[in-house]
């Protein structure tokens, strides 16, 4: 069975990071943009992350320029924007495509696990996927779903028993 841990992604600083780094955590994967009507959700995502990170929750932000060219900046510009305007401290990754022939494999998998209103396509920036501690996709949220509205689902996922480790410990 495929899980989040089967993927890697490049951080904003250019480091290749295995997503197995987040194995055992509850993860919210979000395709983001700096010049979108939903961009203020960065603040809500940061609040949710800050509130629950000590319990094993992490937000992973993936900038995407596929919707209205709303993420035109370089990796440095994106990082500076997120930090300066929203105090983002959760992990941010390099710009990716989420639809089409060049879609990042992570997003191909997420879309196949939880289809949205457009079937296998992502509709817009700030589509969110909640991933359980075992690396499976629990739920998909529309771009207009505010991060604060996810808190109950995140807490429920955090409360679920952690998966047994492969060595049975």
Please give a structural write-up:
It is a single chain. This protein is of the alpha+beta class and 169 residues long. It is 25% helix and 17% strand. The protein is built from four helices and six strands; from the N terminus they run βββαβααββα. The strands form two sheets. It has a four-stranded mixed beta sheet, with helices on one face. Strands 1-2 form a two-stranded antiparallel ribbon. It is globular, with a radius of gyration of 15 Å. It starts with 7 loop residues before the first strand and ends in a 10-residue tail after the last helix. The model has no long low-confidence stretch (mean pLDDT 88).
- H/E element string? EEEHEHHEEH
- What is the count of helical runs? 4
Range of strand content = 15-25%
What topology, given as strand order, has the largest sheet?
4-3-5-6
Helix content class: 10-25%
| Major sheet size, sense and barrel closure | 4 strands, mixed
Mean pLDDT, as a whole number?
A: 88
Distance between the ends:
21 Å
Structural class: alpha+beta
Gyration radius (Cα, Å) is: 15 Å
Shape: globular
Number of strands: 6
Unreliable segments of 5+ consecutive residues: none
């Amino acid at each position: 069975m495929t899980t989040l841990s089967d993927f890697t992604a490049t951080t904003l600083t250019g480091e290749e990071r295995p997503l197995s780094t987040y194995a055992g955590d509850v993860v919210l994967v979000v395709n983001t943009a700096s010049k979108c009507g939903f961009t203020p959700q960065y603040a809500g995502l940061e609040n949710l992350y800050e509130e629950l990170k000590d319990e094993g929750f992490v937000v992973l932000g993936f900038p995407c320029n596929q919707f209205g060219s709303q993420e035109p900046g370089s990796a440095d510009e994106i990082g500076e924007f997120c930090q300066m305007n929203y105090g983002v401290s959760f992990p941010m990754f390099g710009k990716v495509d989420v639809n089409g022939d060049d879609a990042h494999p992570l997003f191909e998998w997420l879309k196949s696990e939880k289809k949205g209103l457009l079937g296998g396509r992502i509709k817009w920036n700030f589509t969110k996927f909640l991933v359980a501690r075992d690396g499976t996709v629990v739920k998909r949220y529309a771009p207009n779903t505010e991060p604060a509205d996810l808190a109950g689902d995140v807490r429920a996922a955090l409360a679920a028993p952690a998966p047994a480790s492969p060595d049975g410990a």
